[in-house]
Amino acid sequence: MTRDTDRPQGYASPPCLAHEIDPAYFDPFAVDEAQARDVARWRKAERRRLVAERAEMPVSLRQAAGELIVPHLEAAILKRLGRLEGLTISAWWPIKAELNLRHWLTDLVARGVTVALPVVLTPAAPLVFRPWTPECEMVQGFWKIPVPAEGPEVIPQVTLAPVVGWDAAGFRLGYGGGYFDRTLAALLPRPLAIGVGLQAAEVTTIFPQPYDIAMDAIVTETGLHWPTGLDPANLLPTSLNSD
Questions:
Q1: Strand blocks (E) in the chain
Q2: Segment 55-109, tens digit of pLDDT
Q3: 3-state secondary structure of 108
Q4: Spatial contact of 216 and 162, defined as CB atoms under 8 Å apart
Q5: Cβ partners under 8 Å of residue 82, min gap 6
Q6: Which residue of 6, 45, 59, 227 is most buried, as measured by CB atoms within 10 A?
Q7: CB under 8 Å to 187, separation ≥6 — which residues?
């Protein structure tokens, strides 16, 4: 069986030419400095636009989207791993009008799931994960985001990542720090990686670069989105011991 980590990591093309050239013709490894600068400028502008649009949404709509996303998230995890109880699932503490799933995380803890939050111990290095419960002490971490004050480092079997933007190939647009990609590249065994965000944040492409890592699935309020070219009907449950 072909593993998700064996999937092609997408294509890359200059944003200024995206409307003129079929991206399928691009060599994903043919990235020059000029192209990388074009992509970086496009991503910065697109990131700013998407974050502003998300912030302008009424809180009630974002809350409703979070409620709709939960059953799709559970379905994705069950599809691949067969259970939730006993797993370690990493999530996030919401900032910048991100979807707030803390009510679901509290429910997961009560159901026997170890919920973990990412912690930056070293700038520009992979994240580590510490267990979280509604009762644990929180302190201000990197970017002033609350993190568990203490606790053992754990390795999640499932990583949930908020997306600023996302595309049909499963690539996510984040805040530009590269922390999540570094972390996925370093984690062994490789966890099930799910991007979580709004349907309105879908873009034609994020113009993925060689260092970008595609998600195994994207979940929005409209449902579960498998990356283009991946037939979910052929997916078998992922072994918790596989790499």
A1: 88-90, 114-119, 128-132, 138-140, 146-148, 158-162, 165-166, 172-173, 192-196, 217-220, 223-225
A2: 999 999 999 999 999 999 999 999 999 999 999 999 999 999 999 999 999 999 9
A3: helix
A4: no
A5: 237
A6: 227
A7: 126, 155, 156, 159
